[in-house]
Amino acid sequence: MGNIKRTRDLLLRSTHLEVDQIVDELRTLRRASLESRQRHDRPPKLPLRKILVGVAEGLSAALFPNRLGPAELADEGVDHFVGHTLNMTLRELMVQVQHELHYNAETDVLSDEDRKKSIAITQAFAKRLPHVRNMLESDIIAAFEGDPAARNVDEVLVCYPGIMAITHYRLAHELHGLGVPLIARMFSEIAHSATGIEIHPGAQIGPSFFIDHGTGVVIGETAIIGKNVRLYQAVTLGAKRFPVDENGALVKGNLRHPIVEDDVVIYAGATILGRITIGRGSTIGGNVWLTHSVPPDSNISQAES
């Protein structure tokens, strides 16, 4: 026993020495990184992903309490549950909004102006929740009507990865428009991690949007999608090229993703690149590579792309 104890103590001391050295090296690297980003006096305190996961779940449950809320929820308790959940969830969201505003500020502490702004953003977002619920209802119905394997709309809501991704996107899109793009992107990436579907919160997507199967779908920041559009797995609505400025840095914010008009179907594996327009009522076949606009009611296959 004595030998075992001495060995253990020796191991603990040597490990402690190694950890101290690693801590010193990491501190040096961290400070150099902060200096290079001119943030030495303002280390970033970013919104927390694990908190936003809970916020997204809380908002989803408030939007659909009978299906995503607690199983024991009685009819007479639904409004109380929704109100309580929203109060808690929006309060947590407001704190994360404050983190993003503070991150973007030039001061060491959050200003009173940014505190007021965080409240205003959260309140404005809350007022948009009925609109989000209405849009999601159209998406769920589109999925049910567009998939012969769907037995009912409840199955669509609780099972389909496309609906999870669209739910996060519609919440994220509202936040993006209210001036907190980092939190919005984190919302979208939470769903991306779970579903394999990447929808940038800056994209504009109309009602009755259906992503069937879903894995590998990518929708870029400046994409515009009309109503009643259906995508299948591995569809990309991406950029054709990435222009740079005189210093060789990527130009950001330019319109570089496709416009997909109403009633379009895009089948699995299609890649549509650049600021082109897919005309209303068109069908884009599987594995098509498309970099030019097509008129309404087009039927594009691999041989024609």
Q: In summary, what is this structure?
A:
With 305 residues, this protein is of the alpha/beta class. The chain has helices at residues 2-36, 49-63, 65-68, 78-104, 112-127, 129-146, 153-159, 161-177, 181-195; strands spanning 198-199, 204-205, 210-211, 218-219, 224-225, 230-231, 236-238, 259-260, 265-266, 271-273, 277-278, 283-284, 289-290, 299-300.
Folded structure, characterized:
It is a single chain. The protein has helices at 2-36, 49-63, 65-68, 78-104, 112-127, 129-146, 153-159, 161-177, 181-195; strands at 198-199, 204-205, 210-211, 218-219, 224-225, 230-231, 236-238, 259-260, 265-266, 271-273, 277-278, 283-284, 289-290, 299-300. With 305 residues, it is α/β, with parallel strands linked by helices. The chain folds into 2 domains: 46-196, serine acetyltransferase, domain 1, CATH 1.10.3130; 216-305, 3 Solenoid (UDP N-Acetylglucosamine Acyltransferase, domain 1). Helix 2 runs antiparallel to helix 4 (78-104), helix 2 packs across helix 9 (181-195) and helix 4 (78-104) packs antiparallel against helix 5 (112-127).
Descriptors for this entry?
305 residues, alpha/beta, UDP N-Acetylglucosamine Acyltransferase, domain 1, 2 domains, five-stranded parallel β-sheet, 14 strands
Give the count of structural domains.
2
**Number of helical segments?**
9
Which word captures the global form?
globular
The beta-strand count equals: 14
Average pLDDT confidence is 92
| Helix share, percent | 40-55%
